[in-house]
Amino acid sequence: MKFSVLTLFPEMFEAVINTSITGRALKKGIIEAEYINIRDFSEDKHRRVDDYPYGAGGGMVMQPAPIYNAYKSVAGDTKPHVVYLSPQGAVFNQDKAKELAQYSHLVLLCGHYEGVDERIIEEIVDEEISAGDYVLTGGEIPAMMVIDAVSRMIDGVLDSSETMSTESHYNHLLEYPQYTRPPEFMGRTVPEVLLSGHHANIEKWRREQSLIRTKLKRPDLLKKADLSDEEREMLKKVRRKRKKT
């Protein structure tokens, strides 16, 4: 998997993506990442890449030519999948991360100011993705989120598929509670089942806790989760019990 980021601030990515799990994946060659400075493709002597919008209005708009030339520098013979990080896009989630992981080359376009000239979206962008229903200064932080989340879907990036499959949102469920040493802290103890060594009971407990946690914190996720009839009945009891308290 190769990530090509078109940005005005490539140094932001080197400080984040080149560390931790993604940093190790880069060193191993499992993923590739390049950060292209759009200003390098400006024909203006001051390296300007923005101008006033036609029709007046506040703010500045990123010009299409520098973006297009930056894109052409990384596109190659086969068109990559181009994502524009925009507050107008669909909100990014785990399903989208899985979908994007199927591509061999992703180009992430980071907008700034009032956004980019509409014609560049029409010309090269395949889809728009948002980090959430709020506005950020630029697309760099959302792009980092996409790279991190998608990288975790690539074989070999994580230590095992088991680690990934139990994480929050992977199966439309939140992850179960986690504990480590010491066995008692501030009067609170680790659940006995986790100390029992009985793997079947531990897995059952974790599944139940995952379901309960999702029901209490993010019930909207359960609409997509694959639940058994027994699990649905258990969650009804949780709801009834919560109403009584």
List the helices and strands and how they pair.
Blueprint (H helix, E strand, L loop, with lengths): L1 E6 L2 H7 L3 H9 L3 E6 L12 E2 L9 E2 L1 H12 L5 E11 L2 H7 L4 E6 L7 H7 L2 E4 L9 H12 L9 H5 L18 E2 L2 E2 L2 H4 L3 H19 L11 H16 L1
Parallel strand pairs: 1-2, 1-6, 5-6, 5-7
Antiparallel strand pairs: 3-4, 8-9
What does this structure look like?
By secondary structure, the protein is α/β, with parallel strands linked by helices. 40% of the residues lie in helices and 17% in strands. The protein has helices at 10-16, 20-28, 64-75, 94-100, 118-124, 140-151, 161-165, 192-195, 199-217, 229-244; strands spanning 2-7, 32-37, 50-51, 61-62, 81-91, 105-110, 127-130, 184-185, 188-189. Strands 2-1-6-5-7 form a five-stranded parallel sheet, sandwiched between helices. Strands 3-4 form a two-stranded antiparallel sheet. The chain has a two-stranded antiparallel sheet with strand order 8-9. The protein starts with a strand and ends with a helix. The model has no long low-confidence stretch (mean pLDDT 94).
